[in-house]
Amino acid sequence: MTILETARKILKEGPICDHCLGRQYAKLSTCLGNDERGKGIRLVLAMQASEGVDKELPELLKKSVGSKCWVCNNLFMHLDRWADKAVIALSDYEYDNFLVGTRVTGLLAENEEIIWAESGTSFAEPLKTELNREVGKRIEKLTGKKANLKKPQIVALLDLENDAIELEINSLYIYGRYRKLVRGIPQTRWPCRECHGAGCERCNGTGRMYQESVDELIKPHLLAASRCEDTAFHGAGREDIDALMLGDGRPFVVEAKKPHLRSIDLNALAIEINSDSAGKIEVLGLKFVESETVEQLKSLKADKEYRMKIEHRTTEEKLKSSLDIISGNLIKQKTPTRVLHRRADLERTRRVHRAELESFDTDTAVFVIHCEGGLYVKELVSGDGGRTIPSVASLTGSEAKVIELEVIKVG
Questions:
Q1: Which residues are catalytic, by number?
Q2: DSSP letter string over 298-360?
Q3: pTM for this one?
């Protein structure tokens, strides 16, 4: 069936606007707009009608003039109004690029299925694709912002049924490293184990196991700077609550959800976080990143370096000998008993690259361990009742445990 034969068949279904007629051939002559295609097809049909070859054509064409389009209900007559509504909705947000989306009504979706079935055309595009494009072009002119089909900062969703604009604001992601300079602070908020956040006697009604976290020391400053609804903290692993995080810090990404502002002065933000934390944490090297960085961070298999102060009941010679044996060797570990309540009981194998004694005293010693990520270093010392093999305790033949732990390098 030719283009004109198909167009004649479409016209017999009822009055149709140029946009909806031309959209059935959207994949042909892509340099044209759908309304231009529709006008062109209608013009050629009118010329055929004037020849008197097809006596039905004049009446079919006449019915479409000034009539309501049965496919879109004259939706394309209101493109400017939709663009104006979107610009008003977007006005409270800072953005460099955007995208338009559409939630069509059931009636429009049904009409579109009917015209596709009746015409049999294979060159059509969906109604909402054209609507998104045409409204998007008008928003570009009104705002000077550019549409971004792949990674928009904000999406204006045209809700046709409710005659409203919904906004989908994509998160803002900030990468950095944090140093934790005091003990007793977890990385993220830790709900109370007894009440699960509801508040009870154990947590003094706070719903928390610990009253502060690295996440919560950063959060209020990002909330204020970006005027976002909430934040999410993504760390490259985490250190124990009683451990310090020193050196150049642990990588993290903090996510600002539904931010009103995006052009944040990150140097000023870092200064504010650091000065307000009262020496508890320090953030370094803040920079804007894409969402993919979160996944990269979560899958990072970085080596770690620790400094540990231990209590022991052995000699310096035996301790040095145990560290020599551990250095360069693989360690087999079952999930430590202290975390079995929240982690699967698995056996892991991790390598210790280097273990060096820094200082030795009668009942304490300090040494540095450089190892693969995922090694439980406290259990490397204590042995955890034989669940870690070998360990300092098993190699020296005496009890040993970590009393102070510092992470001094990640990656």
A1: 240
A2: HT----EEEEEEEEE-S-HHHHHHHHHHHTT-EEEEEPPGGGTTTS---EEEEEEEEEEEEEE
A3: 0.88
